Amino acid sequence: QVQLVESGGGLVQPGGSLRLSCAASGSIFGVIMGWYRQAPGKQRELVATISSGGTTNYADSVKGRFTISRDNAKNTVYLQMNSLKPEDTAVYYCNYRSARTYWGQGTQVTVSS
Questions:
Q1: Contact 87, 19 (CB under 8 A)
Q2: Calpha distance 65→58 (Å, rounded)
Q3: H helix or E strand, kind and range, residue 107
Q4: Angle at CA of residue 35, ends 73 and 96, nearest 5°
Q5: Residues 34, 97: contact at Cβ < 8 Å?
Q6: What is the pLDDT of residue 24?
Q7: Which of 42, 79, 94, 96 satisfies CB 3.0 to 4.6 Å to 102 for a cystine?
């Protein structure tokens, strides 16, 4: 069992930045890590993933604005979000994908003036 704890969410104005963190209770070496989000009334959607070797993948809606990174020594994955838009408002979830899949509890990101 792996526990994922997200942090860093909050309220930010349009154009602002936030950095989300996801700390895993176990090693993330060799694991594909990702961030997903779910807005009210919508399905959960992929935001970004990063492989154990550092290969990244982004949703078209966040390309050029968001950056996913990982620190295997700290068992932590990050999501740097810049140029935030109101449509980025959602609960953001950390995802751990190996032989089993685990989810964090989510952190709220609200982009509003």
A1: no
A2: 10
A3: strand 107-111
A4: 55
A5: yes
A6: 97
A7: 96
Tally of residues, the chain: 113
Q: Which residue has the tokens 């909050």?
A: 10
Give the Cα separation of 11 and 103 in Å (integer): 22
The number of angstroms, rounded, from the C-alpha of 27 to the middle of its chain's C-alpha atoms is 17
Pairing between β-strand 107-111 and β-strand 10-12 as defined by DSSP bridges: parallel
8, two tokens: 């860093």
Main-chain phi, psi angles of 36, to 5 degrees: -125, 165
Q: Which two tokens stand for residue 5?
A: 């704890």
- The DSSP letter of residue 12 is E
Give every residue of the chain whose pLDDT is below 50, as ranges: none
Closest by Cα among 71, 9, 65 to 37: 9
